[in-house]
Amino acid sequence: MDQNQLKQAVAKAAIDYIQPKLEADTIVGVGTGSTANYFIDYLAQIKGLFDGAVASSEASAERLKSHGIPVYDLNTVDRVLVYVDGADETNPNKQLIKGGGAALTREKIVAAVAEEFVCIADESKWVETLGAFPLPVEVIPMARSHVGRALLKLGGNPVYRQGVVTDNGNIIIDLHGLAITDPVALETEINQIVGVVCNGLFAARPADVLLLGGAEGVKQF
Ligand code: 5RP
């Protein structure tokens, strides 16, 4: 199977995982990216089994709506049963790097609200130590240089992601070249830099369940 087929397989596995939990009033949290897109397309096939979704990006909201799945503002829902999303990297503790698609802040908000976070990824995302994938940091535009200098002091190489504006109107700096041995500490430290909105480490709140697709099928961790 190629990478896209693996992404499809984990998206389908996520449907099989959540389907028995769905009720008529269930709100499903939906992530962003190509793996999440496969999940949305499968979710459309069972849209009669739940109420609707909250989305972690405008792109996912549009895709959900195009399938006729109601999309709610997060502030109007009492409960998000489960959040399903991809990742750029996962370690064995289900701590993640996310934000390759620049949706990290909304992704982290929906993950924080959801009762369960199910991460879906192909095996290329599995690492022992996070950091080979550059860590995305969402930054208020006027703080770009200040945050860049502060990130440099952490020992990495910050690179401004040219031409990208997040759904929140901010910019992304990708932090290259860090071997992240203490993800919770680094997540906290970067969040303390004035001008940082959010960083792509999902370590303080890791995934609860990881569905990892490989040559031998989908494994659940
Ligand atoms: C978007 C994300 C995605 O989950 C991550 O980039 C993985 O994307 P894909 O499923 O396309 O490989 O964090 O901000």
Helix- and strand-based class? alpha/beta
Can you give the helix content as a percent range?
Answer: 25-40%
Sheet having the most strands: 6 strands, mixed
Order of helices and strands: HEHEHEEEHEEHEEHEEEE
Outline of the structure:
With 221 residues, this protein is of the alpha/beta class. Helix content is 29%, strand content 24%. The model has no long low-confidence stretch (mean pLDDT 98).
Word description of this protein:
The strands form three sheets. The chain has a six-stranded mixed beta sheet with strand order 2-1-3-6-12-13, sandwiched between helices. The chain has a four-stranded antiparallel beta sheet with strand order 8-9-7-10. Helix 1 (3-18) crosses helix 2 (34-44). The protein has six helices and 13 strands. The chain starts with a helix and ends with a strand. It has helices spanning 3-18, 34-44, 58-66, 104-113, 144-153, 183-191, and strands at residues 27-30, 52-55, 82-85, 89-90, 96-97, 117-122, 135-139, 157-160, 171-176, 196-199, 201-202, 209-214, 217-220. 29% of the residues lie in helices and 24% in strands. With 221 residues, it is α/β, with parallel strands linked by helices. The structure holds ribulose-5-phosphate.
Secondary structure elements and pairings:
Elements: H1 3-18, E1 27-30, H2 34-44, E2 52-55, H3 58-66, E3 82-85, E4 89-90, E5 96-97, H4 104-113, E6 117-122, E7 135-139, H5 144-153, E8 157-160, E9 171-176, H6 183-191, E10 196-199, E11 201-202, E12 209-214, E13 217-220
Bound molecules: ribulose-5-phosphate (5RP).
Ribulose-5-phosphate (5RP) binds next to helix 2 and helix 4.
